[in-house]
Model the fold of this input.
Amino acid sequence: MRVLAGGLCALLVAALLIDRPLRAATSCEGLASLTLPNATITAAQVVEAGAFAPPGPGGGAAPAGAGSQAFRALPAFCRVAATLRPSSDSDIKIEVWMPAANWNGKFQAVGNGAFNGAIGYPALATALGRGYAAASTDTGHVGGGASFALGHPEKVVDFGWRAVHEMTVTSKTIIAAHYEAGPRLSYWNGCSAGGRQALKEAQRFPADFNGIIAGAPGLDWTGRASQAVHVAQTLQKNEGARLSPANTQLLHGAVLEACDALDGVKDRVVDDPTRCRFDPALLQCKGTADASCLTPAQVTTARLLYAPQVNSTTKREVAGLLPGSELGWTDLGWSASARATGLDQFRFLVFKDPRWDIDRFNVATDLARAEEADDNTINALDPNLRPFIDRGGKLIQYHGWSDPQISPGNSVQYYRRVMEALGGAGKVHASYRLFMAPGMGHCSGGDGPNTFDMVSALEQWVESGKAPDEIIASHSTNRVVDRTRPLCPYPQMATYKGSGSTDEAANFVCKAPPASPASR
Ligand SMILES: [Ca+2]
Done:
């Protein structure tokens, strides 16, 4: 009897081990009746090639034009929509798109922006176009603000990290049901809030992804909210201290004058703004104020925008914006999106008072208070990437040095904290690299080379073991490439070899910079 039981056990184990290849593929429509834990499939249908139209704000089809070219180029795919309820208050929408033919056997999850609240259709289309099965989530609420958080702590958890993790787990199950096996490799690709989601996954769910791209991560979500609100508060009550577009152009010109050539190439791009010692007081009017100078109040404003703040409790520095970012400043300081996200953070998540307004902000106490209230739910500050690295995970982080929305200082500080936590670059470089993009804005744009293919770089790293020693970036004007340049693993910098065009990447080499002065 015991022998028989043992034999049955062995059979059972064998059956479990070979479960995947034996699983029959479920047709796209058949996925509608798939039973999942805490999840309901709400739609499953084949979309014919070029037939996808994203839903508009009212639920009907979106007006033609919005990314329609990319959608028209899509191959046929199986479109699955599901609602996930990991808590009784959860209402997380996800979509999983699976190519009808030529699936590359891999999964790519795509990230969101700001407070999210919408499926990222263009990013889904890009991933599907590369042969991936792809997924996106609305992160558990509808719309771009944070009013959803009032009285809904579980929805805050969904937004902070749970929606993305649950989406990932459920998507893999759906993919495995549709094809004959689950994805052989899984990737994350996101920028801005999507970069924050990327790091959160690496920190909290090291088994979810083999490779992760974290672009311009809003990892210090509460610190950035504090900075944007602090500057807006100052400028809201003092119109004379605001900077016009002419003022920011003046500042940007002066920054280039002072620092463009420090990197050896005068190209209207400051390659390492942390080495740029620029004091806006240089521009202060000597006599009568006119367009060629700044008033003392405006000088103070510029200094405030560059200035880091320190969290009074943790003593951790919260980055200001860096020299080079001036053209992205607004009359109330940081970008409108940074300001709106910051206001919502304090209104709905810190003070839980819809009437709270920017004039009530107190930088001395509220910066620390915001971080404490978040309790590492949205913030992605944990430097312990050890479990992700130990599983063989690869992480590419990138950030534009001229980002006016999420300071590039966030990325540099996080990179340094990871090095300190894990024992230096030697322990980390085989798994985690940071690429700073000179002159690039928030996730794209700017005077520096700002177009590059991080997905290919990460695929090569994960699938062929070829670590990215440089990633070629290009800059275009009117859709014509006018400059290429390597992006280098931080702290290396693209260094001119001394001959040939400075607009050609081949004439640059990634090299450690000379000893740095004290960092900003
Ligand atoms: Ca330069």
Remarks:
- The chain has a mean pLDDT of 93.
- Residues 223-374 form one domain.
